[in-house]
UniProtKB/TrEMBL annotation:
Gene this chain is encoded by: sdaAA
Protein's recorded name: L-serine dehydratase
Pathway: Carbohydrate biosynthesis; gluconeogenesis
Coiled coil regions in record: none
Pfam families membership: SDH_alpha
Any single biological process term in GO: gluconeogenesis
Catalytic activity: L-serine = pyruvate + NH4(+)
One GO MF term: 4 iron, 4 sulfur cluster binding
Originating species: Paenibacillus rhizophilus
Domain Serine dehydratase-like alpha subunit: 16-276
The keyword Iron belongs to this UniProt entry's keyword annotation: yes
Composition-biased stretches (Basic and acidic residues): 283-293
Length: 293
């Protein structure tokens, strides 16, 4: 890739008079040696998988094998249909869709890791709800996925996207940043505004630990996906309104690396701390152990 930082990414997009998404199509094609059309078609297939995961999560039984989670997306959807939600309809729908995909993952369904399975609901939740709201076609959304991928590439190569390495800030935080930056561009924002959206989003998740109860990607992972989708919408709106990340986004990414590296091991996907070690968390783990005997 011809960029390694978000500032380089924004500058390169502006120099070539391209959106970040269109730039990433070219960069991916050059790196893979495959045609831009091939790369675009493959990404469009991935978006189809995301849409199907949302549909399944909103319509089918997503009870996990552990029995701990499932059907919350449908509960939120039903509540939204019958009540005026506190968030408002569009944000509530994004939240429900994010929960849906994460519940499909927990019930062993097919998802796209964006950037990980633990954060798989955020980008689909944001993208599909906005697609339905603004009437964008799948080609537009595919360019959005390329934009998200470019942002994820920078984060992964300068910090973490793995909860085992950097806590949940690395998984959910990165996904929020990717969704926020891509959505900013989809809504007509400049590459610079998209980069500011990433920094705004990441700053809001710094220090978030990874503490899965029972070592499963269920509690609290699923609800964090729902909250993450809402945060991504907020970050995009701030950036589009002209709010800037006072600490440059590339510096925020470095801070995420610093914080994640200093995070105790028990708070990095080991189930050794945080919510996993509450009395209720320990009881759930013991119940799971007994069931496996």
């Amino acid at each position: 890739m011809n960029f390694q930082t978000l500032s380089q990414l924004a500058n390169l997009a502006e120099e070539r008079a391209l959106s970040i998404g269109a730039l990433m199509v070219e960069e991916q094609s050059a790196e893979s040696g495959r045609s831009a059309e091939h790369e675009f078609a493959k990404m469009k297939e991935y978006y189809g998988v995301m849409k199907e995961a949302v549909r399944r999560g909103m319509q089918e039984n997503t009870t996990s094998r552990s029995g701990l989670t499932g059907l919350d997306a449908q509960r939120v959807g039903a509540y939204n249909a019958e009540n005026e939600s506190c968030l408002g309809g569009p944000a509530s729908q994004a939240m429900a869709y994010a929960l849906a995909v994460s519940e499909v993952n927990a019930s062993m369904g097919r998802i796209i890791a964006t950037p990980t399975a633990g954060s798989c609901g955020i980008i689909p939740g944001v993208f599909l709800s906005c697609q339905e709201r603004f009437g964008w076609d799948d080609d537009v959304m595919t360019y959005g996925l390329f934009a998200a991928g470019a942002i994820g590439y920078v984060i992964a190569n300068n910090s973490f996207v793995s909860g085992a390495e950097g806590g949940c800030q690395a998984e959910v935080g990165s996904a929020i940043g990717m969704a926020a930056g891509a959505l900013t561009e989809l809504r007509g924002g400049t590459p610079v505004q998209a980069v500011h959206a990433v920094g705004l989003a990441l700053k809001n998740t710094l220090g978030l630990i990874c503490d899965p109860v029972g070592g499963l990607v269920e509690i609290p992972c699923i609800v964090r996906n729902g909250f993450g989708a809402v945060t991504a919408l907020a970050a995009a709106d701030m950036a589009l309104a002209g709010v800037r990340s006072v600490i440059p986004s590339d510096e925020v990414i470095k801070v995420m690396l610093e914080v994640g590296s200093a995070m105790p091991e028990k708070h990095r996907e080991t189930a050794g701390g945080g919510l996993a070690q509450t009395p209720t968390g320990r009881k759930i783990m013991e119940d799971l152990r007994q069931r496996r005997k």
